[in-house]
Design goal:
By secondary structure, the chain is α/β, with parallel strands linked by helices. Among the domains are: 226 residues, MFS general substrate transporter like domains (Growth Hormone, Chain: A), CATH 1.20.1250; 68 residues, no CATH class; 228 residues, Rossmann fold, CATH 3.40.50; 42 residues, no CATH class. It has 28 helices and 24 strands. The strands form seven sheets. An eight-stranded mixed beta sheet has the order 10-9-8-11-12-14-13-18, with helices on both faces. It has a five-stranded mixed beta sheet with strand order 3-4-5-6-7. A hairpin with a 2-residue loop joins strand 1 and strand 2. Helix 1 runs antiparallel to helix 2, helix 3 runs antiparallel to helix 4 and helix 11 crosses helix 12. The longest helix is centred in the middle third of the chain and has 52 residues. The chain is elongated. The termini are far apart. 56% of the residues are buried.
Amino acid sequence: MLVVLFFGSGCAALIYEIVWLQLLQLVIGSTAVSLGVLLGTYMGGMCLGSWLLARVIPARRHPMRVYALLELGIGVIGIVELFVMPFVGQIYTAHVGHGFQNILLRGLVSAVCLLAPTMLMGATLPAIARWVETTPQGVSWLGFFYGGNIAGAVFGCLLAGFYLLQVHDMPTATYVAAAINATVTLIALSLASESPHRAPADEPAQSRTARASGARGVYVTIALSGMSALGAEVVWTRLVSLMLGGTVYTFSIILAVFLVGLGIGSSVGSFLARGTMSRRIALGICQMLLAAAIAWTAHMISDSIPYWPIDLSISRSPWYTFQLDLARCLWAILPATVLWGASFPLALAAVAVRGQDPGRLVGGVYAANTVGAIIGALAFSMVLIPAVGTQWSQRVLIGLSTVAMLVALSPFLWSRVAETSGGETRKFAAGVAVALVGAVGVAAWLAWSLFPIPWGLVAYGRHMATWAGQIMPGIVQEDDVPFEAGPTDVYCTYVGEGMNVSVAVTMSTAGVRSFHGAGKVQASNDPRDMRLQRMLGHISALAHKNPKSVLVVACGAGVTAGTFTLYPSVKRIVICDIEPLVPKFVAPMFAKENYGVVNDPRTQVILDDGRHFVRTTRENFDIITSDPIDPWVKGCAALNTVEYYTWCKEHLNPGGVMSLWIPLYESNSDTAKSMIATFFKVFPNGILWSNDAKGEGYDAVLFGQVGPTRIDVDELQQRLDRDDYQRVKASLEEAGFGGKKWRGGKEVDGPGVAVDLLATYAGQAADLQEWSKHAQINTDSNLRLQYLAGMWLNSYLGTEILAGMLRYYRFPENVFVGSDERVQALKQALEKEGRPRHIEPPLALGVTSNYSSFWTYWPAGTTQPVKVPIKTKGSRGHIS
């Protein structure tokens, strides 16, 4: 029954962990420093609670009642946290500073919110440990309790990630966790009333605090084991999320696999602890096997799984993908996690002495393991990965396991021969020494055999297998890339593993330079990407008329930020990026396309989470552009919430403009509706500009202004014709605005730069209300977008999404003004070839893809399409 109770306790604890860390990241940011502070505080609280329990609560207290009160306290504090965190966030925002002072403040915020509940969580296992005796059988039960706790954590992790937070929100998840705590409390109190506790009053105090001979070495071993376990979780989570796509579901699957392995290992270790074999020898062998298991995972991640022939476009169902992701995680990660799980009960058994206080025993081992875990998590995330990369980090993991093995088994280098009047006689065990030297040699060979991860994994992530035939090995200088004709091969010119994200820059033989982050292309000098990046900057600056200060959230290749260097009125450009490698190494490689923006004297680079910077800065701007990575990447939904847009709006000067990139590819209709409706909720006069080609949806720009937007087409063209705007005009022309156009199947002169730029208009908030009326609004309390986007990242429905929005198109008389000639030219330009419009009367014709067998249209005033069968001929789907 206690195993069942610990299952519930673990389930609630993981739900709380996910919710609390997510809420606090919204306050103190998502940088590696912030995450390190959060994780250190969370685990530090659990460590402190486990260590203090036996020293604060007398052994005469009924263990079940103590456990019940701890669970009740966790549930009560869990609900209180929902109301406390917003106030703590306000205080933090009002007093936030910079540098070391700011790190201390983040730590203080984390401690205020997390220390009390995590101390109670950490105390639960030592509290219930007093229900068993410190015999091999009793200690093995502690391992089963720990395993039950982990099994509950697995369930809680999946319940939160795949249901509670996907369908509901963080308050609902918290209430469910609190209800579980309440249920566990009632059952524990009921069991306590039926099971009297016999206090160990007759035993001398020294026996209650006794420790096994050589216990210090076991504590060091389990600390090193915890260090390698959390270090590996940091390293492997980064690498595996590249392979699978960094969605919230991927992180839930990885965490669940880690916990499953720990639970299985804990059960196996508990059985071994009951046997006659020396528990310390078993613990040492476990660490030795861990070196091999870590090498196995490293080879699977770098040499095997990325090359599995997987084509994610075969099925759009996310559930097939999740099964595949789970199988790959289990294959790569499970062996090592089982061994880490077995280490804990074996360490308990190795230091257990009959008559010892079980609470003190469990608290000591748990605290040692947790201290090691804290050091491992912080060292690998904030120091080792940025300094030496994941290849050497995994070599360090093997080294830690090897050292843990030596610490555990070193006492057996000397065997006891006989007892004499002068004491024990000991003899050097040459066989043990040879075995240890051999194990160290094997571990060194395993470590040296590790390969760096392929750069293709950093660049293309989950799609690496489909690019394998075009990826050229090694890292080359850009001048060495052969630009011969033929198949489009891709060369890597830079790869870096930063503190927050891994990035790469590639060059194709066709001359396309791309910046990769989160396992996909984030920016490039490809014409379609250049068009979007330039649109994001120029539409904002031209709509404002006289911008002086600009904030660019997310640097990327710097192309959007670079557009603002061309405007004579701009005096200050602030670029905020979470990863230092991007402005330092990536953006300079696109200096031609971004006009050397990072070295412009008007530019200041801020290294911070964009949301955190917007919330804490005291500065206002004329323009804010936000170009973060894709919304399906975990954490990016925080840059698309109502609260974030509201803060941005509050930091705009009168007449200020905010613009935002949104992808229509790797998305579905519900995801697009959520993004657009959330933005328009804060900017009710907002506008959508589409970067499409002949009706094929790709991506778009969301635009909002403080006050109504009115654009004089004639004035805009006159400004572009001025001498001081010639670089602006040339920049737009380079992106394809103002040149020749295809109309009626032939090439004709374009309508001019201004009209051509404004012809990307796709709709405004008022017209799109009907289309988005069932949209799920993304807020801080639900972060709905990351769950929607993460579910459908393998969908390519951009054309269908765009067509659905354009059904509600009306020419915006309230936005575009000017001479009849130019306004009419804009109307004609908006009726692009292949771009469906809602025309009255009588029909609104839609487009058909190359493989469709019907023509879609919408009768005027309706929202349901009608499909008419058609005949097609040729590869371009001409109507016959």
